[in-house]
Amino acid sequence: MNNLTSKFENVIQTSDIYGKVDHQPDASKETPRNTPEKSMPFSDQIGNYQRNKGIPAKSYKDSKVYIVGSGIAGLSTAYYFIRDGHFTPENITFIEQLQIDGGSLDGAGNAKDGYIIRGGREMDCTYENLWDLFQDIPALEMPPPYSVLDEYRLVNDNDSNYSIARLIHEQGKVKDFSKFGLNKKDQLTLIKLLLKKKEELDDITIEDYFGKSFLESNFWTFWRTMFAFENWHSLLEFKLYMHRFLHAIDGLHDLSSLIFPKYNQYDSFVTPLGRWLKEKGVKIRFNALVKDLDIHINAEGKVVKGIITEEDGKEVVIPVTADDYVIVTTGSMTEDTSYGNNTTAPVLAVDNSTSGQSAGWKLWKNLAAKSPAFGKPEKFCSNIEKSSWESVTLTCRPSALVEKLKTYAVNDPYSGKTVTGGIITITDSNWLMSFTCNRQPHFPTQPDDILVLWVYSLFMDKEGNYIKKTMPACTGNEILTELCYHLGIVEQIDNVVENTIVRTAYMPYITSMFMPRAKGDRPRIVPEGCKNLGLIGQFVETNNDVVFTMESSVRSARVAVYTLLNLNKQVPDINPLQYDIRHLLKATKTLNDNQPFLGEGLLRRVLKGTYFEHILPVGADAHPHEEEKESFLAEQFGKFKEWVASFKS
């Protein structure tokens, strides 16, 4: 590749930076300061300057890439090898255990047999890596030169997302969801958590830290149902989520901070990205199970020599050279999914003795047995009682359920616009059940008279309020009956059952990445010493990003490629809005249910009429008792200034 940079040799050959890039800079440890030594952007300095094309250190024309798993992380890895690594697409091969690509980003079925989606993705404008990728992928339905990002913006810019029924109770009554309901002590506890260092939170659970009043607040109901957190999950991950989505916290109660695709996640993202890769020449081997990697480990590092697979019942070893690369998706949130329908249940009981025995987890365990650098998979896959929940997809013809849905809808469900605006949570449900209807049609070929709804519950060990069974032991019709009971239409259940196809999915590891963890439990994206191996997905270590998002999957892919190829290109840290004083002030007021915070009145008087007046959160001035406190503060501050002046004189 010397011909690419021949005109710049006098610069790069004398540089202390070139070839020594920190590909995953950490904004939580960097003090942004311009110095003669600072030539690259700050850790979280996002924008078009980061869109430079990577310059490979050598030609990879003959190098091969093997990607284990074809979820969004794997698909993104192939994209970045092509775009930034200049790899020959025909030399990139996916090895996929299933018969279809997409991993956890699924969406399938038809109106006759019923549609199924195991989950959905709540999206954010600040997913810099996701949009970096999809601004280059041709659109699903728009003609060239438009991209997936262009389609996404077209839909969301013209159809705001929000909910008019975020919480319901008492057989379908809309519950007041305008307030978080956090007392002053819980607000202070949250602020203290934001101030804590990440290193202090190893293996601590959310319920270890927060008290009963917090766990019973509207705030926690909003949070846990939107992101699928349980009380026993990682406090560290909750903290990272708070930082990551601090800018969106004032849209948490009505979901107005979210943006959604036009269709389901498979058709919206996997289909166009997969099509682009296949058109380039990327290959995929379906029904191929990767059991282990042959890794040569010595003092000089770790080099993959072979991929041990099972295909058609036979062991096949794929040879790997030192010039080839292997990328492995570690773990799986949807591994071992059990399915049911209207008349069958997915599982009769949750059996924890089966934890971590499936192929995807065994591969990670085999890697971990070779070196501590590959992490501790057992921390995440050993207790499915604490990492599982069940989702349900409803294919609905007109019925009493559809009529009830209309009372919670922002727009007519058949209009193509926002319907429920996200999940509606039934707060007095023993299962803590939530349901949603996204924009329809949810599938490109979905008939006009069909609606697709999605339902999920967090509590797998409790009997229903109406159906006295745990959710995993229920048939689809029984789950439908429980839902109709909470909507106040159980007397019309025969009509609903007759017109609704139910597909259920029980997922043992769906929130396994939230399990309490400590430093070293998750491997680095390129583990120490690895020369041609990268790990991607939801179970790898990043500096400040969260898990359970498409953004984190794409981030892991991008970091893997840039690090292994040592490109002169960085993956910026998460969007820096957590440091923006405007969002900090807004979050402070939002957590206080939009009541003035201490010092707000004084701040308003100081900034009134200035350039910076707009940074203050929207709302009335302080209440009279707050005015008294702030007048006192202003008086004391004035006395302090006089004392300083007299001291100087």
TrEMBL record:
Residues 19-49 are annotated as: Disordered. SUPFAM superfamilies: FAD/NAD(P)-binding domain. GO terms for molecular function: FAD binding; oleate hydratase activity. Residues 19-36 have a biased composition (Basic and acidic residues). Pfam families: MCRA. InterPro entries: FAD/NAD-bd_sf, Oleate_hydratase. GO terms for biological process: fatty acid metabolic process. NCBIfam families: PRK13977.1 (NF010584). PANTHER family: 67 KDA MYOSIN-CROSS-REACTIVE ANTIGEN FAMILY PROTEIN (AFU_ORTHOLOGUE AFUA_5G09970), MYOSIN-CROSSREACTIVE PROTEIN. This is Oleate hydratase. The lineage of its organism: Bacteria, Pseudomonadati, Bacteroidota, Chitinophagia, Chitinophagales.
